[in-house]
């Protein structure tokens, strides 16, 4: 059963749709990465799920009950935008008030539990307003975790966190989903981090869900390629493009270099798509007098898959090929 099921959800601001006939299925116990460009409608959707906004149309069901059922609302833990905390009260006091709101029987124990989950025990006595941005984010997550919610809705929870904070939140969410069966709906623009924890994805554009998929489906859809580094990547690209349909030259960060005119720029290897065997590539280069420094099979990740999907949405299928340094049969007069 889905923890969150949405059909035909619609919300307009002054007649302009922010969420447009949206469908969404968040399975129980999943970590659902909700992805989209700025202004695509993620926060609005989350606010509609949590009842912080009124929908104009559609159905939201949470844990099998209508989204506005008070029983269901009490099972949600929410962090959307900034934590709702009083700046002049201590972190402990803020969480204590939250515990009272939720009617928790042992506030002190619960406050210590959630602060320890986000690694913020030492901040209990500090005024919230004096906490750093990253500390506030962690405290916001702690607040959402109070009362052992069944469903967590987290909007950009790792915004402003340092590496240690990101790891702490990652481990906490993995623990909650795996060991306690908590469902997590999470938005983040840090796709590399999201892909370390998400079991499912929903990709939204202009208020409309354009794709829902499991992490395993993403894996199959992400194209595989042979990564190869040579003594002269630009020459190797030209040689390889005679045999394979698509070859990209990468920069030092492993990103495809834009436009073929940058032949002089430093490189970080090549991607050879459609080559099923790295040995084939290696042999072909050797036959053409090129020395291979490194070679392995690899796949594109979530970030590239997402950028490719967005390019295709904007410009139609195949748009990505125009973005990168692309060596193929029609390039360079060959
Ligand atoms: N209170 C509001 N009044 C008017 N328009 C709004 C309001 N809140 C959001 N919008 C508009 O609704 C659309 C969706 O906004 P939303 O904040 O849901 O996007 P988002 O995907 O969360 O963006 P981001 O990734 O930047 O946080 C945007 O065009 C935004 O300008």
TrEMBL record:
Residues 4-231 form the ABC transporter domain. Gene3D superfamilies: P-loop containing nucleotide triphosphate hydrolases. One of its GO terms (molecular function) is ATP binding. Pfam families: ABC_tran (PF00005). InterPro entries: AAA+_ATPase, ABC_transporter-like_ATP-bd, ABC_transporter-like_CS, P-loop_NTPase. Keywords: ATP-binding, Nucleotide-binding, Transport. The keyword ATP-binding applies. Belongs to the ABC transporter superfamily. This is ATP-binding cassette domain-containing protein. The lineage of its organism: Bacteria, Bacillati, Actinomycetota, Actinomycetes, Bifidobacteriales.
């Amino acid at each position: 059963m889905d923890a969150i099921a949405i059909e035909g959800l619609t919300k307009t601001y002054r007649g302009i749709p922010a969420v447009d006939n949206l469908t969404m299925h968040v399975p129980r116990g999943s970590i659902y990465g909700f992805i989209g460009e700025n202004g695509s409608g993620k926060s609005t959707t989350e606010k509609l799920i949590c009842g912080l906004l009124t929908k104009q149309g559609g159905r939201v069901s949470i844990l099998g009950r209508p989204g506005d059922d008070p029983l269901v609302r009490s099972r949600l833990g929410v962090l959307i935008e900034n934590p709702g905390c009083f700046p002049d009260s201590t972190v402990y006091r803020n969480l204590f008030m939250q515990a009272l709101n939720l009617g928790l029987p042992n506030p002190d124990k619960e406050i210590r539990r959630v602060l320890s989950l986000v690694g913020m025990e030492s901040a209990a006595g500090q005024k919230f307003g004096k906490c750093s941005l990253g500390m506030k984010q962690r405290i916001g997550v702690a607040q959402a975790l109070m009362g052992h919610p069944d469903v967590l809705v987290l909007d950009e929870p790792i915004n402003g966190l340092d590496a240690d904070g990101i790891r702490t939140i990652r481990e906490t969410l993995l623990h909650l989903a795996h060991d306690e069966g908590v469902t997590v709906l999470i938005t983040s623009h840090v796709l590399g981090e999201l892909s370390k924890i998400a079991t499912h994805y929903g990709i939204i554009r202009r208020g409309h869900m354009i794709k829902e998929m499991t992490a395993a489906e993403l894996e199959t859809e992400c194209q595989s390629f042979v990564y190869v580094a040579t003594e002269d990547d630009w020459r190797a690209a030209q040689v390889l493009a005679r045999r394979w349909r698509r070859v990209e030259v990468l920069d030092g960060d492993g990103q495809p270099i834009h436009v073929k005119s940058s032949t002089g720029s430093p490189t970080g290897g090549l991607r050879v798509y459609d080559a099923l065997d790295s040995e084939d590539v290696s042999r072909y280069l050797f036959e053409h007098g090129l020395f291979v420094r490194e070679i392995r099979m690899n796949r594109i990740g979530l970030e590239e898959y997402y950028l490719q999907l967005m390019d295709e949405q904007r410009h139609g299928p195949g748009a990505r090929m125009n973005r990168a340094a692309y060596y193929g049969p029609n390039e360079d007069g060959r």
